[in-house]
Amino acid sequence: MKLIETANSIKTMGIRGAGLIARSAADALKDLAENYQGNSLNEFIDLLDQGGKTLVASRPTAISLWNAVQATLKDAPRAENIEDLRTKIVKNADSFILNSNKAVEIIGKIGANRIKDGDTILTHCNSKAALSVIKTAFKQGKDISVYATESRPWRQGLLTVKDLSDAGIPVTLIVDSAVRWIMKEIDLAVVGADTVCSNGALINKIGTSQIALAAHEARVPLMVCAESYKFSPKTIQGEMVEIEERETSEVATNLPPGVKIRNPVFDSTPAEYIDSIATEIGLISPYAAYEVIVNKLGHECLFERESD
Ligand code: RUB
Predict the structure, then answer these.
(1) Cβ neighbours of residue 308 closer than 8 Å, sequence gap 6 or more
(2) What residue numbers bound the domain in which 71 lies?
(3) d(Cα 89, Cα 79) in Å, to the nearest integer?
(4) Best mutation site among 13, 96, 102, 127 for ligand 1 pocket (most ligand atoms within 8 Å of CB)
(5) Ligand 1 pocket check for 192: Cβ under 6 Å
(6) I want to staple 150 with a disulfide (CB 3.0 to 4.6 A). Which of 157, 177, 182, 295 is the partner?
(7) pLDDT at position 297, please?
(8) Are residues 150 and 20 in the same domain?
(9) Which of 86, 105, 124 lies at the terminal end of a domain, its last residue?
(10) Using one digit for the tens of pLDDT, what is the confidence trace for 277-303?
(11) Within a 10 A sphere around the Cβ of 151, how many other Cβ atoms?
């Protein structure tokens, strides 16, 4: 079943990056709807609901996943019959995926306006939105070069350097601990987002907050690239973002007995360290996160949600 495969693949990082995770979840729900063979509307709704919960449980931190499931299933309570529900789910999933891809493109254009000819850029992990900004600036003819962090333990930085070098952009790989040393050569730091909280804090790949501190110290602006569905309606209700801790074997194996390992894979960067957030609805201050959540994701998020 595609939905189970998708959830497993998200869990095991076969599908990764908050935007792709979201699009894959919408696509898996679309597949579930297209293939429903039963004849009970309630059963169909329950199946979709369970499917949504299975997907959301696959990785806890990126709100994009939860927002994608909400956007795809939002019309379920209003469906008149099975075919109506099927049509609604397929339409919602298609439009979520289309808009998500468009958002990455628009963010690329908006963010690229902040990049100047001759700039040296630092990026972290592997963010399609951040790469869209960098690649757009390069396509505009700007002479830029990039430092990319390795991003232990999964080393997503290797994907980033491949993508940038395939695009012809000069790129240098550094280990995560080299960030502060390199910062004196950096003009702009550009990172993606897994979740943007209502207070403007950014949740992104572990190490982002250290980059933010080093950038702040060196007066290098930090630009976050985040589609509006990376903003969290849950945080407006006071919920904390769960920071995923993954298997310790991802960090090291065969250590002496008694040595512990921890593997938190995201961290939180307070708004004061963020210069701007490039979204598909404009370049904003992190302090405008509340407005994005309420205006873009709906006033209903101000009121109590039904249980997830
Ligand atoms: C990836 C990561 C990326 C964001 C944004 O973490 O932190 O910066 O997900 O990516 P992981 P995008 O590899 O653990 O999923 O801009 O592609 O949505």
Answers:
(1) 53, 56, 66
(2) 2-105
(3) 10
(4) 127
(5) yes
(6) 157
(7) 75
(8) no
(9) 105
(10) 999 999 999 999 999 999 987 766 555
(11) 23
